[in-house]
């Protein structure tokens, strides 16, 4: 097997006395969608924030393409090709689609000491990228607030992909969406995966996970019970694992690639 | 492929629906109103224009700073006290200590911008609302100003700046007028009235364009360009729109906010320096309530109090409305207390209109 794009080895994260993560291992391969499931407070968000440089792990090692790394800031993670789309923080609604799309990496033109945003180029690229994701914008200056929840997620995903993300982390992108918008986002995930990007898809909806996932990891109170491949686990079993699993003992047998 | 739900947006609608539309309408309304009630009072003669132009320019200078800061999601209530403080610093250094005026001005700028940075630093580090932190500075700076002034001169007004500023290499930038020749020529050909008697006989009644007005234009153009055209401007919007979301994509939110506090302090110091050069004196009570007037201009101009949305041009129009109303009622011979009634009315009108426009643009519900 090839080296994973990103590998988290026995990651622990403590917040004072709270042990949010108690030794979680996880990896993503190229072109794979790895679903991270878990109930509220299981530690999913904490885990991916560690991956994206927001938190520093208390213990454990992170590897990118086999190399040990330490991230000091979200910027470091971004530069290493890890892009994160946060559920409610994906976009700034008051600002235009273009301004959101390029935020933090605005393309510039300059004349002498003066530098300004190259809006012509920025608008053009934004329109093109959006239509390649199946969204037709009225105009690139349109405020993100006028887009639907699913469209906002898609803009955020398109942005991450455009800026060369190798690993895309999606924190509950579908939890607030209706049926149609959810299927749009799932279709986007599929499209992104086919382009060779590793996707980490966080959700508590087993059906959404089953629709696109290649592998599944369940987090429960900061612990994993292992990782299962597609076809090795039934939706009901995932559901039980998430709930804390009374039938945990029996189920562990069915988790093929237990780490 | 096109979406059948997208109505074609007409060019007119697109040009109309902008953050400063409320302020544009307000400006038109105010001018029409004063043309009607004070059209023949001299309000629109060159002298009259200079009168309300200067007042508006004063508001505009502090409104630009307040506008960018508010869009970045913060307030500065210490602007008024900072104006008093900066003026007294200049006067004490130059008149009392005998430092060259240019050095006094530069020192005041450095001290005040550093205080702005301190404001910002405290807001960022404590996580307290800037409203509270800068309210503390409103009192601290005003108190310090009075204390310093009494300590050094035993009074709260320090005069004599004009005398020491004669021929100073920097002071001219904040006082006096430019384009004197042009205005003299306009006077000669009769476009502008000239004095018919006294020592200034033959000189035009309006000498030129005050440096203060030039500062206002320079700051407005700079602020507008910075906000709408540059990367930093995008970060200002982002910091106020959603600081956390901005941080996640790598925007240095803390740096942006602290720099905006510093810029606000810079604008306050420009205001103070111009005032000291014009009056030739500093007084410890200068700048009273200016922070609120700046915020009112910005809000009339279409900015959102909670940040992330607004326009420098709008804020400048807000300042113009403010200046024209304040001076216009005087020209119209109205009771000066009516100024506040009128202003309150305009504030409500503009804010209601701005809210509707903003909802149209941003899809807020
Ligand atoms: N900054 C923090 N300080 C202290 N405790 C924290 C912090 N962040 C998270 N926690 C704790 O860590 C645990 C895991 O939280 P986390 O947000 O990762 O859960 P989650 O799996 O994302 O849940 P949800 O599905 O509700 O989003 C919770 O008990 C939470 O209270
Ligand atoms: Mg979460």
UniProtKB/TrEMBL annotation, chain A:
<dbReference type="InterPro" id="IPR003439">
    <property type="entry name" value="ABC_transporter-like_ATP-bd"/>
</dbReference>
<dbReference type="InterPro" id="IPR003593">
    <property type="entry name" value="AAA+_ATPase"/>
</dbReference>
<protein>
    <submittedName>
        <fullName>ABC transporter ATP-binding protein</fullName>
    </submittedName>
</protein>
<dbReference type="GO" id="GO:0005524">
    <property type="term" value="F:ATP binding"/>
</dbReference>
<dbReference type="InterPro" id="IPR050107">
    <property type="entry name" value="ABC_carbohydrate_import_ATPase"/>
</dbReference>
<keyword id="KW-0547">Nucleotide-binding</keyword>
<dbReference type="GO" id="GO:0016887">
    <property type="term" value="F:ATP hydrolysis activity"/>
</dbReference>
<dbReference type="InterPro" id="IPR027417">
    <property type="entry name" value="P-loop_NTPase"/>
</dbReference>
<feature type="domain" description="ABC transporter">
    <location>
        <begin position="6"/>
        <end position="246"/>
    </location>
</feature>
<keyword id="KW-0067">ATP-binding</keyword>
<dbReference type="Pfam" id="PF00005">
    <property type="entry name" value="ABC_tran"/>
</dbReference>
TrEMBL record, chain B:
<dbReference type="GO" id="GO:0005886">
    <property type="term" value="C:plasma membrane"/>
</dbReference>
<protein>
    <recommendedName>
        <fullName>Xylose transport system permease protein XylH</fullName>
    </recommendedName>
</protein>
<dbReference type="GO" id="GO:0022857">
    <property type="term" value="F:transmembrane transporter activity"/>
</dbReference>
<comment type="function">
    <text>Part of the binding-protein-dependent transport system for D-xylose. Probably responsible for the translocation of the substrate across the membrane.</text>
</comment>
<dbReference type="InterPro" id="IPR001851">
    <property type="entry name" value="ABC_transp_permease"/>
</dbReference>
<feature type="transmembrane region" description="Helical">
    <location>
        <begin position="170"/>
        <end position="187"/>
    </location>
</feature>
<feature type="transmembrane region" description="Helical">
    <location>
        <begin position="105"/>
        <end position="124"/>
    </location>
</feature>
<feature type="transmembrane region" description="Helical">
    <location>
        <begin position="337"/>
        <end position="357"/>
    </location>
</feature>
<feature type="transmembrane region" description="Helical">
    <location>
        <begin position="258"/>
        <end position="280"/>
    </location>
</feature>
<feature type="transmembrane region" description="Helical">
    <location>
        <begin position="292"/>
        <end position="325"/>
    </location>
</feature>
<feature type="transmembrane region" description="Helical">
    <location>
        <begin position="208"/>
        <end position="227"/>
    </location>
</feature>
<feature type="transmembrane region" description="Helical">
    <location>
        <begin position="131"/>
        <end position="150"/>
    </location>
</feature>
<feature type="transmembrane region" description="Helical">
    <location>
        <begin position="79"/>
        <end position="99"/>
    </location>
</feature>
<dbReference type="Pfam" id="PF02653">
    <property type="entry name" value="BPD_transp_2"/>
</dbReference>
<feature type="transmembrane region" description="Helical">
    <location>
        <begin position="51"/>
        <end position="72"/>
    </location>
</feature>
<feature type="transmembrane region" description="Helical">
    <location>
        <begin position="21"/>
        <end position="39"/>
    </location>
</feature>
<keyword id="KW-1003">Cell membrane</keyword>
<keyword id="KW-0812">Transmembrane</keyword>
<keyword id="KW-0472">Membrane</keyword>
<keyword id="KW-0762">Sugar transport</keyword>
<keyword id="KW-0997">Cell inner membrane</keyword>
<keyword id="KW-1133">Transmembrane helix</keyword>
């Amino acid at each position: 097997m090839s080296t994973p794009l990103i590998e988290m080895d026995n990651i622990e994260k403590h917040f004072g006395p709270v042990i949010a993560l108690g030794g979680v291992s996880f990896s993503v391969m190229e072109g794979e969608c790895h679903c991270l499931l878990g109930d509220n407070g299981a530690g999913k968000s904490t885990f991916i924030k560690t991956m994206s440089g927001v938190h520093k792990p208390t213990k454990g090692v992170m590897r990118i393409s086999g190399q040990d790394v330490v991230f000091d800031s979200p910027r470091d993670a971004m530069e290493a090709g890890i892009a994160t789309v946060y559920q409610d923080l994906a976009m700034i609604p008051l600002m235009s689609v273009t301004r959101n799309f390029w935020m933090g990496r605005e393309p510039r033109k300059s004349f002498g000491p003066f530098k300004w945003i190259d809006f012509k180029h920025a608008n053009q690229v934004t329109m093109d990228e959006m239509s390649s994701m199946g969204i037709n914008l009225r105009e690139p200056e349109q405020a993100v607030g006028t887009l639907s929840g699913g469209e906002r997620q898609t803009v955020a995903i398109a942005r991450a992909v455009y800026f060369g993300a190798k690993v895309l982390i999606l924190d509950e992108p579908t939890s607030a969406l209706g049926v149609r918008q959810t299927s749009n986002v799932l279709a986007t995930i599929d499209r992104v995966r086919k382009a060779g990007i590793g996707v980490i898809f966080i959700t508590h909806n087993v059906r959404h996970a089953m629709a696109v996932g290649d592998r599944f990891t369940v987090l429960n109170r900061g612990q994993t019970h292992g990782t299962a491949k597609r076809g090795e686990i039934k939706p009901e079993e995932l559901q039980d694992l998430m709930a804390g699993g009374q039938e945990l003992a029996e189920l562990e047998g069915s988790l093929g690639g237990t780490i | 492929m096109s979406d059948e739900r997208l109505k074609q947006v007409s060019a007119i609608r697109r040009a109309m629906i902008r953050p400063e539309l409320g302020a544009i309408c307000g400006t038109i309304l105010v001018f029409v109103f004063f043309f009607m009630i004070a059209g023949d009072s001299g309000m629109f003669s060159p002298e009259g224009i200079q009168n309300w132009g200067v007042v508006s320019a004063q508001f505009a200078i502090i409104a630009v700073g307040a506008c960018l800061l508010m869009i970045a999601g913060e307030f500065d209530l210490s602007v008024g006290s900072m104006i008093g403080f900066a003026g007294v610093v200049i006067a004490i250094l130059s008149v009392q200590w005998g430092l060259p005026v240019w050095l006094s001005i530069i020192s005041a700028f450095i001290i005040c911008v550093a205080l702005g940075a301190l404001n910002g630093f405290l807001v960022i580090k404590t996580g307290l609302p800037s409203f509270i932190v800068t309210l503390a500075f409103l009192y601290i700076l005003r108190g310090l100003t009075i204390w310093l002034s009494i300590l050094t001169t035993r009074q709260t007004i320090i005069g004599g700046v004009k005398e020491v500023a004669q021929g100073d290499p920097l002071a001219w930038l904040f006082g006096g007028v430019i384009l004197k020749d042009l205005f003299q020529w306009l006077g000669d050909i009769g476009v502008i009235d000239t004095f018919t008697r006294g020592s200034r006989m033959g000189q035009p009644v309006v000498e030129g364009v005050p440096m203060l007005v030039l500062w206002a234009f320079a700051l407005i153009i700079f602020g507008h360009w910075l906000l709408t055209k540059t990367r930093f401007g995008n970060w200002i919007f982002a910091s106020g729109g959603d600081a956390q979301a901005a941080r996640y994509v790598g925007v240095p939110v803390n740096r942006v906010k602290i720099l905006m506090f510093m810029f606000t302090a810079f604008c306050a110091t420009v205001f103070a320096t111009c005032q000291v050069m014009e009056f030739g004196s500093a007084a410890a009570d200068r700048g009273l309530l200016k922070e609120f007037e700046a915020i009112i201009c910005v809000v009339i101009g279409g900015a959102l109090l909670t940040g992330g949305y607004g326009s420098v041009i709008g804020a400048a129009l807000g300042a113009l409305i403010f200046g024209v109303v304040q001076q216009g009622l005087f020209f119209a011979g109205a009771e000066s207390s009516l100024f506040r009634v009128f202003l309150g009315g305009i504030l409500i009108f503009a804010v209601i209109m701005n809210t509707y426009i903003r909802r149209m643009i941003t899809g807020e519900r």
